Amino acid sequence: MVKSSESNLNTSPFNVTGHPALSINAGFSDGLPVGMMIVGRKFDEATVLNVAYAYEKFRDAEEVRQ
Q1: Total domain count for the chain?
Q2: pTM value > 0.85
């Protein structure tokens, strides 16, 4: 079992600095999900959310074309 302090190694720098960040499914590799972290400037949550939304639309459109 992973200790709770070990599971946030990728996010802890952003928790400390206060930068908005989120992780979304970027697709799959060898059948396993691949995550993509999007980080923005302080107090600019809107841009982070807009980038994530735009990427999801692009990703989903690519899946439909295949």
Answers
A1: 1
A2: no
